[in-house]
Amino acid sequence: MLVDLDEMVSNCPDPRSREYIREAVQCYKTGAYRSSVVACWIAMIFDLVDKIREIGAQGDLAAQETIAKFDRAREVHDVRTSLDFEKELLTLARDKFEFISHIEYIDLSRLAEDRNRCAHPSQVSDSEVFQASPELARLHIINVAKYVLSKPAAQGKAALKRLLEDLDSRFFPAKQADVNVFLSAGPLAKPREALLKNYLTVLIKDLIKGPLVKYERKQRAINALFVLRDMHPEPWHRLIPSILKTIISSLKNDLQLTEAVLFIASEQGYELWQYIENAERLRLSSFVENFPVDALDELEQLFSDPMCPLQEAATSRILNASEAELLNNTFWLDPPTVLIDRLLAIYGSKTNFADANKFAKSIRFYLLCSVDPDRHLNALINAADNIQVRDSIQFPILMNDFIKKFDIGRKDVDAAFEAAGLPKLEW
Q1: How many CA atoms within 13 Å lie on the side-chain side of 210?
Q2: Is the predicted pLDDT of residue 122 greater than 70, yes or no?
């Protein structure tokens, strides 16, 4: 499918550059192909100079020095310096300002060669003058519009620096719809892939690898990450797997791995699970199965949503945890069902009245937070199969608190004890 040249012209934001490239298109349409190539070159040169001038006005010292050199040569009519500047401009755009990539530089360098052949006397043979083909002219129009004229001024390190400064600023929007408007007005509206990849990498590092990153910055990073998915779906879906692989494979300590796990467990985070390769999934799951003792209660976040992909690993960790790991130096604000299951299993294994009494007091809060009281009533009755538990002072107290909290009748409890082959509880 051929690209519509007039549409490409309309996508060039700078009025002066747009006028020059429109002239190139008009020459192409009338068959003046050599003139079209020359007009392409002029449009590109003016656009690159304007871009350097723009970022210089924003405070870029290298741009200020470059444009000052150009302006001095123009003011004193220094033709040689002006010509040297023109020859160096593509290299400056590639290396110093990162307006273009190395691949784009190759294509635009061909334009420089063809412009010279079109603008200066150039004979193919003694009797034949160089003639630009329509295909050649069209190719250069497309390359100049696509690589240079349609792009904002900052695309390299300067653009990334500006975007990261915006993430920390007070004026970064809080709502995703506003973030879309905000990012669409800057370098990410039509980014080069390198800029998009670098920015996405920083966002994901903030979310996965940055335990010291402020809450506000993380929320902005989440919004920006998924807004960019909607703005640039094709490169986003293609780049995210390799970015995740690089970052997750680089996680070295428990703090970083914990941060990664907790983000993946969040509603926004597990949307990225489908992009994580099997080796990195295994790495995260294995870490959860051996989760650090001093942060064990943080696993409750993995049970807040049944869609969490690490829930099975978290269940395994809790079911294999000891009493000390579950209760010492931890406090579960929203205890998951599997935690209460494990605590009641430990309760039923107590070997003396003193331990049973002490343990009953320790688990009272968690038991009364149950979201599955029928399940845990049966687990309490199973624990009562142990006489050290059933005849302890705290067991009937714990049972009474439990049935009051969940409005369970004593007759129903007595019937359940009888069905389990246990004597009725002495209330």
Answers
A1: 15
A2: no
pLDDT at 198 (0 to 100):
92
**Which DSSP symbol is given to 425?**
P
CA 262/CA 361 separation, integer angstroms: 30
Tokens linked to 360: 């009953």
CA count, 13 A, side-chain hemisphere, 163: 29
The single-letter DSSP state of residue 145 is I
Q: Give pTM, 2 decimals.
A: 0.70
Cα–Cα nearest to 153, from 68, 93, 219: 93
Angle between helices 337-347 and 373-383 (to 10 degrees): 10
- Any bridge partners for residue 125, and if so which? 128
Question: From CA 111, how far away is CA 132, in angstroms rounded?
Answer: 11
Q: Do the Cβ atoms of 427 and 396 come closer than 8 Å?
A: yes
Cite the DSSP H helix spans in 129-192. Answer: 134-144, 157-167, 176-184
The Cα–Cα gap between 177 and 175 comes to: 6
The pairs formed by 326-334 with CB atoms below 8 angstroms and a separation of 24 or more are 326/296, 327/362, 327/363, 329/293, 329/294, 330/296, 330/297, 331/297, 332/297, 332/300, 332/366, 333/297, 333/300, 334/300, 334/303, 334/304, 334/369
What is the rounded end-to-end Cα distance, in angstroms, of the chain? 84
Q: Three-class SS of residue 297? A: helix
Give the count of alpha carbons within 13 A of 185, CB side only: 8
